[in-house]
Amino acid sequence: MLAAARRIFALLALVMTPLPGACDVLAAGPPRGDAALPTSPSPLESAFSARAGEPLRQFGYDLFAPVGEPVQAEGVAPGAIQGDYVLNTGDALLVTLRGQKSFSKRFSVDRNGQLVVDDLRPVTAAGLTLDALRQELTTTVAATWPNTDAFATLAEVRRIGVMVTGAVRRPGRQEISAFATVLDALSAAGGVERGGTLRAIRLIRAGAGMTVDLYPLQTAGRMDGNAGNADQPLRDGDRLFVPPLGATVAVAGPVKRPGIYELPPGAGPLSAMELRDLAGGALRPGRARLLRFGIGPSGEEVTEDVADPDAGRFADGDLLVLAPQREDRRDELRLEGHVLRPGPRALPQAKTLAGLVARTDLRPDPYLPFAALESADPATAARILRPVDLAAVLAGRDRRRLADGDTLYVLGAADVDFLTAEPVLALLRGERQPPPDACPGLVSLARKLAAEPDGPLATGPQAHAAAGLTGARTPCTPLFTAVPDLLPLALRHAVLRLSGVQRPGFYPVAGGDGHGPATGARDAIVESELPRYELIGHVRHPGTRRLSAGATLRGVLAGGKALKRDVYPLLGIVERFDRRTLIRTWLPFSPQEVAAGRADRSLADGDRIHLFATEDIRSLVPSGHADTTPSADEQSEPPMLAALLDPAVVALIGERTVQVRGAVRDAGGYPVADRTPLPSLIAVAGGLSADADPAAAELTAATGSRSIVDLGQDTGRTVGPGDALRVNPRPQALEARAVAIEGAVRRPGSYDIGRGETLSSLIARAGGLMADAYPAGAVLTRESERRREKEQFQRQARELERTLALEVEKGEPVKAENVALARQIAAQLRGAEPLGRVVVEADPAVLRTRPELDPLLEPDDRIVIPKRPLTVAVSGEVLHPTAAQFISGKSAEDYLGEAGGPTRDADTSRSFLILPDGRARPLALSSWNHRVDVIPPGSILVVPRDPRPFDALDATKAVGSILSQLAITAASVSVIAR
């Protein structure tokens, strides 16, 4: 009953024991088993790497588990145990009997090699196989208990000791499982060091030895070596010795596993083919040059071509380097850029431009008027770029033949948009230095302009047009990063289009005289004479159409018929471009009002009408829940739609948002074009929820004024951008969460409660108290009180640490052990978990006569009505904490005497009594005070610890109070645990 309380008092007793500080732990260093594997190259690796010109590592040493990781769990066998396993001292078996005698127990083979099972004669198990033991056990059980079946399984494998010495990271005796092999023992010793051999490991058993080679395991998956196996089972007393590393050779070049390899002991030189196979083979088939780098008699390095790859020429210290005779490609074309599958193509199957690319090869929205063909100049063999009319190629009009190595680059919309980006326009205006983080395309353009200050790009129509343009801050595309010279080529063949396109700007066109599509500034600026507009987004038929005279939004949207069903009804945007100033403006409108005929707007040439889906709008606008904080991912990663839209459109949507909160089905932010009727806003938010109170909605204007709105009556009220609407819910008759009553009541369980419900009504609903109920010991725990007590403990911990810090700053003599003890108490305060007990009166008879004592219940309250106890507990600093029998009239001294009396660390002057209902009151235990205290059953008498170690601190009183509070918390735990 008092187990939980005694655990806490035991923790208090440990307060006097100093703990090692962090400095001591750091000074001790990390555990030996946590050391990491070496990552720096060994001297041998450094020497071979310098000779080969590439990093080379010694083969095979990453086979072992990292240092400190066990080979297998303690006492666990790898897989199922076979019946031929030989038992010995230390093995443990699970013996199960079923029949006349039934039990299932674990027994170990003792030092005498016997297995002693309850009520059976001992069975000699050492030296028997598991199957033989099962037969012997079955015979013994049948002789003792007829009609009883016996079963035995191996529960724990014995441990054996193996001595591992030589070039290992952790030499010495290794305790390993009886199932362990040579490889397991080496891993337990931390693995073989890079200065040790993997091909001549010695296993010594009973004076005889055998050699273990680990190379076959890693090169062919076999365990067999020349004279021993890597999976050779070990026995107790075996020894493993790892000699130094033997003769080594290295393989470099395009092989699958370049590295440094150890030669078999006693074997002759290896051939180049044997070394190539040891390195996994060549990366690419075909003939290759074989170079041998050997060490001469005087230490010089000798290089020679290996004419016979099957001759044994490679010995200790030699290096083999493979070099393919040819690594170039033949009969290859490439298709790159805005295509579905960029990469190489075969020249024999695509001899012309029309055969290289088709419409099925292109990604959506390719740019057809211009592409670039990279080929070799016949005169100089230099790679040059030439413009290509991709539309003519796809139509079959351009069938020029291609040569080996030609590459066709296809542009997309993003590549063309970048031609009018602000960094490009800045260079065309005269700035000759690109930004520090400029992509290679911008660097190439800057060099071209600097090299030809009087050329067509620096003085032509592009430079004149750039002076009056305002570009976007779009990033450089991957195509201009991979092919830098493509950017100045596209600009030199570009014209400025101000209408008839989605975005006014530079558009390259293949043709002309090689310097551009036109020679004059007048011809380089193209402006369509036919007025047009464009529908974009969530409409049935998006695209560009001719603008008729007097066209309006209502006519263009066909009274709403051109819109999709789930279009966002409260906001659309007209993007208008002024050709003279090259400035865009954004004009919001309400698609709902336009479709209903209550609003309209005239359109102008070049207008782009943006419509949005409701789902897209919700992804752009933050949630309207006031108590919702965006996660780190939501704050750092913008929605996908935001990355596709113009930033000005996204900003406009955010600026015109109305927040809708409270009792609606889909609370959140909803952008509006202008003043919008409240019913339209509520409809977009999914309508009112079932618990909404439409007569008590709260409207807060962007100016800060607030008013109450009746949604059923004020149908003409409107809201505008920046306003906020909260629909309040109706008052709830029931609390959101239930309370629980347990213990000595007739119907314990969880009960829903109404507002203002009391404890007496809950007890009545639970059927009343049982005959043996003890209402004086009722326990009510409350979450709000638990949080308050937790915060109090945290505050006391901070105050204790602050007081300690002030004592140290003032230079007062404070013992180091007292500082450590104070910090331990602060840590205990932070880790203590209070129950949040509230002292209540739970006797229904008392509550009927004194209703002011009847407590109001809160959600998640828990009430425990215990049975009448017959004991009084004595805890704290007593010789024998106990639960003494309750006797009416018995004094505190009597109960303390039954617990053996106080210890020498006790502070009897501060002893207190915790009553069954949770209240605490002091006791008088001194010899001169003969006052008799009434101690009811279920009470706890607590003798606290004397806070004398802290008498040098100003916090002595605080420490005593803290110890008492922890004791009261422990008493509450003990009451709940009854």
UniProtKB/TrEMBL annotation:
Coiled coil: 783-810
Taxonomic superkingdom: Bacteria
Signal peptide: 1-27
GO biological process: monoatomic ion transport
Pfam families: Caps_syn_GfcC_C (PF06251), Poly_export (PF02563), SLBB (PF10531), SLBB_2 (PF22461)
Subcellular location: Cell outer membrane
Molecular function GO labels: polysaccharide transmembrane transporter activity; porin activity
Keyword Phosphoprotein recorded: no
Record membrane topology: Multi-pass membrane protein
UniProt-listed Gene3D superfamilies: Outer membrane lipoprotein wza domain like, wza like domain
Start and end residues of each Polysaccharide export protein N-terminal domain: 82-142
Residue stretches making up the Soluble ligand binding domain: 249-268, 658-701, 739-783
Keywords: Cell outer membrane, Coiled coil, Ion transport, Lipoprotein, Membrane, Palmitate, Polysaccharide transport, Porin, Signal, Sugar transport, Transmembrane, Transmembrane beta strand, Transport
Domain Capsule biosynthesis GfcC-like C-terminal, first and last residues per copy: 883-945
Positions of the SLBB domain: 162-226
Location, primary (coarse class): membrane
The UniProt record lists the keyword Ion transport: yes
GO CC, one annotated term: cell outer membrane
Family label: Belongs to the BexD/CtrA/VexA family.
Protein name per the record: Sugar transporter
Organism: Azospirillum thiophilum
